[in-house]
Design a protein that fits this description.
The chain is about 30% helix and about 35% strand. The chain has helices at about 35-45, 50-65, 110-115; strands at about 5-10, 15-25, 70-75, 80-85, 100-110, 120-125.
Amino acid sequence: MAITLKKIQRKNPQNTAVSKWYLTQVSAGSVGLSEISKEIEKRSALSLGDVQSTLSNLVEVLPLFLKLGQSIRLEGFGTFRISVSSAGTETAEELSARQVNGVKILFLPSAELKRNMGDISFELE
């Protein structure tokens, strides 16, 4: 199996007269919890219902810990954590939690997950 790539041309935002060619991934679709659950079921002694319940509970529980300001480390998979952005102020005294204007969930893959992606292959469309 290979990831399909296509060639696209993009202009330089600072100089629209200049453009270069780049490779970009062609989407092969997406999978959901149902498809992932079926694959895990094949590899374990758990029933499909057990796997689906576990993954559904994981999706529900992750925000509880993130909202407490904790990072979530799933061994062999990676770490989830929250990142906030805020408006800037001239002095520290002016700064308050009201200046938070964005929250992101960041994911950092584990070394093991990165290693398992090492044998990836590509083909042009």
